[in-house]
């Protein structure tokens, strides 16, 4: 069931990589700030592309991110659903849950924090959410980015830096020396092998599998 989604408190920094990690991806020595402006922009693009690939929902105002944010969802209940599929996963704090205007306590709900699934319960029984609005406020995402997510973002950053340093249409290059320096370049015709139409290549996307949301109608 689709909800109305709002970011209440956006992440202070939506980037998955620190500037130190971006410097390392660029092969710079620690403390070398000569390319910080370029790398900060790269980090923002990489994080945004990973959020898109992972189908992270946004509110149309703030940049979607896997970093920790406080959000609010309103579900218009039909009186026949026993499970709410929250838009964000990896939930660290469930702040407020109301059903048809009545606030629930912790014992009234059961949360799968990693999957972002919320049930209405009474003891050991699962209940159906009553007709009307169900409002859920919670904090989801990472304060500290997991190492595997950092690794995938670093791989994508290195790929982007490598692509920027060469012409992707060049198939091969040869240099002849004897008289005058002669350079010959062969170009790909048609699609470039290994290229991808999406923002994240398949091998990196595979590393992100546990962070990809499943779209719910």
Short description:
By secondary structure, the protein is α+β, with helices and mostly antiparallel strands.
Form type: elongated
- The helix/strand order is EHHEEEEEEEEHEEH
Largest β sheet strand count, sense and barrel closure: 5 strands, antiparallel
Mean pLDDT: 88
Helical fraction:
10-25%
Number of continuous helical runs: 4
Number of individual domains = 2
Q: Are there runs of 5+ residues with pLDDT below 50, and where?
A: 187-197
**How much strand?**
25-35%
Taking all Cα atoms into account, the compactness measure Rg is 23 Å
Q: How many strand elements?
A: 11
Read across the widest sheet, the strand sequence of neighbours is: 1-2-9-4-5
Question: Termini separation (Å)?
Answer: 5 Å
Structural class: alpha+beta
Write structural notes for this entry.
By secondary structure, the protein is of the alpha+beta class. It has two domains: 1-68 and 142-217, no CATH class; 69-140, no CATH class. The chain has four helices and eleven strands. The protein has a five-stranded antiparallel sheet with strand order 1-2-9-4-5, with no helix packed on it. A hairpin with a 5-residue loop joins strand 10 and strand 11 (182-187). Helix 2 packs across helix 3 (147-164). It is elongated and about 85 Å long.
């Amino acid at each position: 069931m689709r909800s109305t989604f709002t970011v209440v408190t956006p992440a202070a920094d939506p980037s998955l990589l620190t500037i130190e990690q971006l410097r390392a991806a660029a092969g710079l020595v620690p403390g070398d700030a000569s390319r910080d402006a370029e790398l900060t922009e790269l980090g923002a693009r990489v994080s945004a592309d990973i959020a898109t690939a992972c189908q992270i929902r946004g509110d149309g105002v703030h940049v979607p991110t896997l970093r920790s944010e406080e959000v609010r969802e309103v579900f218009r209940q039909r009186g026949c659903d026993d499970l709410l599929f929250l838009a964000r996963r990896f939930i660290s704090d469930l702040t407020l849950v109301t059903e048809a205007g009545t606030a629930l306590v912790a014992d009234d709900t059961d949360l799968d924090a990693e999957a972002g699934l919320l049930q209405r319960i009474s003891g050991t029984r699962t209940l159906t959410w009553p007709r009307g609005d169900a409002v859920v406020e919670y904090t989801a995402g990472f304060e500290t980015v997991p190492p595997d997510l950092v690794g995938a973002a670093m791989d994508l950053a290195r790929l982007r830096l490598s692509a920027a340093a060469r012409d992707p249409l060049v198939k091969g290059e040869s240099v002849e020396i004897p008289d005058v320096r002669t350079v010959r370049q062969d170009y790909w015709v048609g699609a470039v092998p290994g290229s991808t139409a999406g923002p994240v290549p398949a091998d990196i996307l595979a590393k992100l599998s546990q962070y990809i949301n499943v779209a719910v109608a």
